[in-house]
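pasting for ref
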Amino acid sequence: MKRKVIVAVGAHPDDIEFGCPVTLSNYKEDGYEIHYIVATNGENGFKVKSLSSKERIDIRKKEQLIAARKVGVKEVHFLGYKDGFLDYDDILREKLTLLFKELKPEIVFSFDPANMGFDNINLNHRDHRNISVAVFDAVFAAKNDFIYPDKKGLHRIEKLFFFGTHKPNYEVDITDKLEFKLDVLSSFNSQFPNFDNFANFFKEHIGRDSEKYKYAEVFRVVDVVQISY
């Protein structure tokens, strides 16, 4: 039986959980193996100021692993970059490319690199912008024999699911699974110490991206087309 793999990439612990945990859980139920790549440690988004950097990193990592288990993720790959200082460079692109070649996903989820409206300082955070472009370019590099050659060989990803998009073309109704999404997000106690208040805010403001459904996860889906020659 063919191994079916999805990789979801976020800049911080909790990015993927905001973007697509219900959709990923649905794919998991359909037999897909799910992997996460988390670029930064998330230590500078902490609400408690009295802890050391190492303590904050450890807590954020543990929270991410708890959230991933709820979705059924096989493995979380932590890249260990400093929160708020993620640069897009060739080192980051190479790390992502080699992971794509190793894991061989059919589908990759991440932030939409086309969303550069700078109308939301949280969504358009520097780390979010840089990881989105790096993912896009790594998908191209993974299918090329020469950019980052290694023993794993090239790999062509079939589809990109971009969350945090202003131009969605695909919506997943999560109305009946909203409580599951909130439960996954509740794993990040360091971010949402008063979770009931956050849950109400989410229901009123964040989860209502769709005109078709009460609550939805929305994406710009891009087919990765291989030019024939």
